[in-house]
Design a protein that fits this description.
This protein is of the alpha/beta class and about 200 residues long. It is built from six helices and five strands; from the N terminus they run ββαβααββααα. Strand 1 and strand 2 form a beta hairpin. About 40% of the residues are buried. Belongs to the RNase HII family.
Length: about 200
């Protein structure tokens, strides 16, 4: 059973990101403030949900949240500032988009930078403990998957609609065969043997 609140503040924002471990595409972060009576029968950490359930949840979260924001940190910036900083920067930008200023922020994971003067708490596996972080994880994942599906249409050989940019065997084989694309993160170890790729 996910908890609705950590801090006791009414306007508590949960934030999470998707795509940190991917070889291609952006890191996408989301922030959500839920009303205190928010419930949904199957809202959980997005990794525990089927794609169909996540897609069903997204409009429900967007319609019922007090506020939400989603931000994309593109692969060039991920390469520039590193993936951990990209995750935190993405979460900050998602919080920037909230139309209500949060009184407290709870973050999935164990790393964060102060956001303005708002108190915060990092929570390991927070997306499986708190509704607002779970909701943020669903938004981050569905927005990112939608984008990966879009670029899959352009470059189907990497099968991003299925692997979403994660380092599957098939994805690595496609990089081996066709080289890296503008959507790949150049600072990531794209292949175990890290061949000189045609960038």
């Amino acid at each position: 059973m996910l908890q609705s609140n950590f801090s006791g503040f009414t306007l508590e924002a949960g934030t999470d990101e998707a795509g940190r471990g991917c070889l291609s595409g952006p890191v996408v972060a989301a922030a959500v403030i839920l009303p205190k009576d928010f419930t949904h029968p199957f809202l959980n950490d997005s990794k525990q949900l089927s794609e169909k359930k996540r897609d069903e949840l997204r409009p429900f979260i967007e319609e019922n949240a007090l506020a939400f924001g989603v931000s994309f940190v593109w692969q060039e910036e991920v390469d520039e500032i590193n993936v951990l900083q990209a995750s935190i920067t993405g979460m900050h930008r998602a919080i920037d988009q909230l139309k209500i200023k949060p009184e407290f922020i709870i973050i999935d994971g164990n790393k964060f930078r102060d956001y303005k003067d708002v108190p915060h708490k990092t929570i390991v596996k927070g997306d499986a403990k708190f509704l607002s972080i779970a909701a943020a994880s669903v938004l981050a994942k569905t927005y990112r998957d939608e984008y990966m599906f879009k670029i899959h249409q352009e470059l189907p050989v990497y099968n991003w609609q299925k692997n979403k940019g994660y380092p599957t065997k098939e994805h690595r084989n496609a990089i081996r065969e066709f080289g890296a694309t503008k959507y790949h993160r150049k600072t990531f170890k794209l292949l175990p043997e890290q061949l000189k790729l045609k960038l």
